[in-house]
């Protein structure tokens, strides 16, 4: 690794051996990477405690555009179509632009197949949510032409938690058979790639679609805890209201042109992301009962293009490039949360890697970005009475007269027309030094993130979590300064890695809860505060015997707001410290086609008591996991079986970063999963 | 540059970074110790001398519902809100509010919708809230939920739900 940034990679073998309910749950086994669980089959990425629009997910270098801002939206990517995942821990705006402020997850699926024809059939299942699924992959190559096709199908039932009831807003929700009512779901993905690999130039086209439907926990979604006439307990595999559906369609092209000491590369993509949330229509406040179940819908279309040139000149590796992205988002449904918007961004960057010697290199780069956004006005579809002002300030002991004066009524405006544009200049410098068995890295850089439509233009009730949210049109682009270090040492049977970082935000965008009420709900508004964060990941790998390996890793994160109304508090969804140790025994064979392993893993997660309203403190927990895998040779073919047991002790615990944490829903109980792969 | 020089420079730089991190941390923990300075407690809604309304109470249209509860907080109270909505569809709220006898389910025609925010004078740790709410004469009679919400200055919130019935 010659980069000055801290990058971790996970190949297909890692993804297969650690496969979980979702891609992010699989990758969360990498130190510094966490999954924010949205349900049992969906989760969103978190790197060093930052998530949502502060982590950029790219597929083959192109930014994946879903509804990253949403609390209950996962990542729409097929984990079985990925060859390699690369995680950049720390700000990487220099090459990726806005949103890469917390880090980047770059998923690669365009490696060229080597064989004339090969295929893989995977069958997998999990006991906790009774999930079953299958994934088929066919790849082939004929001369200079190649193809890759993937299809994945998955179906899961309501997931099981070690609890008989959940307490939410002073209401006890009884669970039948410890199942989290209506969290079942299904997913269907398809992916086709066609490529040409020439002597000087390569090109490949990709067309992909991810389609999923998943239920929300029936008793704690929407404005209040509700009983329903729907018989949720009749089947644990059916998906009743409330549920959401998502379809992510993707078409892209990658082309590169190579010469002796350089190359030119281009990526072009169109994405169509369509989310629909359906719920039983209910009246709230002055909103009458809607006539249909479509609570919200979002259709986001994204066009992106990026071009990059690399040239080696003596001891310098030069790189320069630019990218353009256009987004158009349209909303619908009776529950308003995000205004319609269009967004155009472009950026140019240049960087140089100066190889002073084989063992010392310096990196420096700079980037300029410009983004403009247009937000459309939105009015309620129902009328709200304009009431007389309630400015009478009561003194202790005074009896207030609570009669409303009815007057005119109006369609309230929830979001105003708005145009904003932003400029941003970012930079990064780094050094990479090899000293015998040691590799030392240091990088200092600035990253940024443009405010999103919700942060600027929202002005209404968030129908998901009982609160009134108000945007702030004067928000500045969020900036982050970070110092990253990396110390890697490989000495015989031992390898060690320490990656500390120090991070400062002069203007972190934060949704601040206030003591005020608006339309009967607590008012939250977007504001900016100074934030200091630091932390580290540490890992040790020790080959005790040729066939016995001990891996231990841990991570710690400190975050504090240094200004504003919540000065002294932490940040929402802050990851607590955690540590993990794994003992792995490999079968003593030299033949990789007959290899096998047994692994036992112990995980400790600390207590999170640095919280902000409305969070609750989350107690620490310990988990015991185990996995076993073996490859078999069947003539020319290969069969691989992997079994994995999670939370073997069936511990009841809470994950501070989970979407369901605020509702007091514990994490899944004991789970066994199995995967059978047949390679031909 | 010699290898050892670079090595030393690097160690120095890394130490400086960690040193800054450490000192910033210790500073902030001196000024604002997590548990002592930061308010981490929610306000509470407690029964005063004569808490009202209480579960399963019955009122007539045109009656005055006297709201009498006491709010307390460890630091400073914020504001409160009273919201009244129908329970004609039996959607229920809390364990205590669910046990009253309910009328048969029905569709709302002209239900009572009440939603009002009230300030609490600043600087108080305890406040006896007294609000008289007149029930309009032209609303649908039936089962209603009486929701009380209170905040403190730091943005913590507490809720209470009471089930009442409005008779003709």
Automatic annotation (TrEMBL), chain B:
It comes from the Bacteria. The keyword Signal applies. It holds the Pfam family DUF4625. InterPro entries: DUF4625 (IPR027829). Residues 1-23 form the signal peptide. Keywords: Signal. This is DUF4625 domain-containing protein.
